[in-house]
């Protein structure tokens, strides 16, 4: 009987021959081209600015402009101004104006058709700013808030004692929280308004007789008056 010939195959030391294929290389994450592709497709700062400015103002920018406009109108409705609202309104308005100018400048250079197509959204923010400025210059917020509160303020005046200033501790009279109310000898009623005044204390005053504006008046201390309407004044201490 003859012995059968041995079968040829890989020896245990050699092991099996490794397979080559695209899926095996990709699965290991050792593809040297992948990092280059990621870098090549990463947008530069200039491309990001162009993409940002090519889109018309939308759901964030326009509501932010409206909110800042309302803050500035509220600040104007307080006699003598309101410092926190003034800082927020002016600071936020400056930031939004700079963003809008930058965005429009880039869009006019690289995406002018988009500006023409969405022109109403582009002019919305300047219209809001213009409306807020016109209303503030005309003192409409202050006049309207005082007119809406006049009846309640006069009711508080009737309870005031001419010999002293009555503390109000932030109680509301109409649309104003009051800190104090007092009546001077000439019949002028002084209302301290909570939070009123940018750098100096301010408030409201009512006088049945006209008061001189912009000057100190004898018997009124270091207050200066500015007329609002119908016998109502804003006073500021200096």
Give an account of the 3D structure.
Helix content is 48%, strand content 16%. It contains 8 helices and 6 strands, in the order H-H-H-H-H-H-H-H-E-E-E-E-E-E. It has a 6-stranded antiparallel beta sheet with strand order 1-2-3-4-6-5. It is elongated, with a radius of gyration of 36 Å. The termini are far apart. The model is unreliable at 1-28 (pLDDT under 50).
Question: Could you outline the blueprint of secondary structure elements for this entry?
Answer:
Elements: H1 22-28, H2 34-40, H3 45-54, H4 61-77, H5 83-110, H6 112-117, H7 119-137, H8 140-159, E1 166-173, E2 176-183, E3 189-193, E4 202-206, E5 223-229, E6 232-237
Antiparallel strand pairs: 1-2, 2-3, 3-4, 4-6, 5-6
Helix pairs in contact: 3-5, 4-5, 4-7, 4-8
Summarize the structure.
The protein is of the alpha+beta class and 238 residues long.
Distinctive features:
8 helices
Major β-sheet annotation: 6 strands, antiparallel
Q: Give the helix tally.
A: 8
Q: Low-confidence runs (pLDDT<50, min 5 residues)?
A: 1-28
What gross morphology would you assign?
Answer: elongated
H and E string: HHHHHHHHEEEEEE
Please indicate the percent range of residues in DSSP E strands (runs of 2 or more). 15-25%
Q: What level of helicity do the residues show? A: 40-55%
């Amino acid at each position: 009987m003859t012995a059968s010939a041995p079968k040829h195959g890989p020896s245990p030391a050699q092991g099996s021959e490794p397979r080559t294929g695209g899926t095996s290389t990709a699965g290991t994450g050792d593809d040297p081209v992948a990092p280059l592709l990621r870098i090549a497709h990463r947008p530069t700062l200039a491309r990001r600015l162009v993409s940002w400015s090519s889109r018309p103002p939308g759901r964030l920018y326009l509501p932010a402009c409206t909110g800042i406009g309302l803050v500035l109108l509220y600040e104007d409705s307080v006699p003598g101004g309101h410092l926190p609202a003034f800082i927020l309104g002016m600071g936020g308005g400056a930031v939004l104006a700079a963003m809008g100018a930058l965005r429009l400048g880039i869009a006019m250079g690289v995406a002018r058709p988009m500006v023409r197509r969405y022109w109403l959204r582009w002019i919305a923010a300047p219209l809001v700013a213009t409306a807020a400025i016109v209303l503030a210059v005309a003192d409409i917020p202050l006049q309207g808030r005082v007119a809406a509160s006049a009846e309640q303020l006069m009711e508080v005046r009737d309870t005031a004692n001419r010999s002293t200033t009555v503390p109000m501790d932030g109680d509301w009279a109409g649309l104003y929280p009051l800190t104090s109310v007092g009546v001077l000898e000439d019949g002028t009623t002084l209302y301290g308004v909570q939070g009123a005044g940018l750098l100096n204390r301010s408030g409201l005053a009512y006088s049945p007789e006209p008061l001189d504006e912009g000057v100190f008046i004898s018997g009124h201390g270091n207050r200066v008056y500015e007329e609002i309407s119908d016998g109502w004044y804003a006073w500021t201490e200096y």
